[in-house]
Amino acid sequence: MGRPLLIRNARLADGRLASLIAEDGAIRDIGAELTPPEGAIVEDAAGHLLLPGFVEAHVHLDKTLMGLPFIPHIPGGSVAERIAAEKTLRRGLTIGVEERGGRLIEQLVAYGTVALRSHVDIDSEVGLKGLEAVLALRERYRDLIDIETVAFPQSGILRDPGTAGMLDAAMAAGADLVGGLDPAGIDGDVAGHLGIVFGLAEKHGKGIDIHLHDGGALGAFELRQIALRTLAAGLEGRVVVSHAFCLGELGHADFAATAGLLAKAEIAIMTTAPGPVPMPPVKRLMAAGVRVISGSDNIRDAWSPFGNGDLLERAGIVCDRQDFRDDADLELAFSLVTDAPSRVIGRGPAVVAVGAPADFVLVAASSVAETVAKRPTERTVFKRGRKVAAAGELIGWSDG
Ligand SMILES: [Zn+2]
Predict the structure, then answer these.
(1) For the segment 21-45, what is each residue's pLDDT rounded down to a tens digit?
(2) For residue 58, how far is its CA from the centre of ligand 1 (angstroms)?
(3) 142 and 213, same structural domain?
(4) Mind listing the pLDDT tens digit for each residue in 120-158?
(5) In a shared domain, residues 44 and 146
(6) Phi then psi for 111, rounded to 5 degrees?
(7) Which one of 125, 226, 253, 389 has the minimum C-beta count within 10 Å?
(8) Where are the beta strands (DSSP E) in 214-306?
């Protein structure tokens, strides 16, 4: 498992300076003065803050255009227009998912991300090719980051014949979760779409992560249907709905009824804190007992020319959109990209504590709130007790 690690002069979240020993991938000891184990690598943290590694709840490794010259964004605002634009663009790409996705993974690791969930397109054009490439990336980068995959029907299930069978094959091929997309808005059949998604989840014993852009009362109806099916299938705690913009535009009674069902079904809501559309109200949802997590979603792809995968930037965007200002609010935003998604994807709490995975980040800041406010670029990233990135560069890694 490699040499033990001793970090000295690290600042803990409570402000204390401490030493930490990591061995066999886990934190073994934290204390004021610790003796290095035999053969240990010793690091001086110089008073920098030691934080749990960041957890990316939602990306698309197969979609990114990283590694290609800048490609101007194709106009078109609706989900259907964007799906069509992406397909046109995808046919002409000169480099594959393994290279583009690999570049994105390396950037995410350098920013401090230690685990991610990637949706991967499954449709009648690409079949399982994207998934196979992302599974190969997972293997190639296994020492740097933990990767989960969602079989994602980006072109719909019913509207793209053959997709249901391909999703089944994707689950058999090793995808970790069943995806879905706007049962009403894209497939025009809520019961039909959800019947397939939940049927596959039950068949393969896996969780679900559904993209839901449908707004207003329609979106809320779909959320409640998802919650009812989750309860019926006994999938509590294993279902995520990504986006759920509708939660940001419901009246009091509708919101209370929908949030109540989401809480009962232990469904987590993933938000990117998007700019031009309503977003789920983070604190109101949490007050209703709904788990909220955040992620990057599209990073320099056919859906958006923007994004870099920096989860501290994402936490700051959440703060902007929710008007979070005080330290407690900034800490809450930080938890949306660390502890909350870590629990949702089944890694347990993201903490710097004895027994926890030795996946952490040192940043030039004095507190979690300052980290979210400043987004320090100076970060040192450790995965399973091994230094994997510093100053924005991967260490000891060649993708040959
Ligand atoms: Zn997405």
Answers:
(1) 999 999 999 999 899 999 999 999 9
(2) 6
(3) yes
(4) 999 999 999 999 999 999 999 999 999 999 999 999 999
(5) no
(6) -80, -15
(7) 253
(8) 239-243, 268-271, 291-294
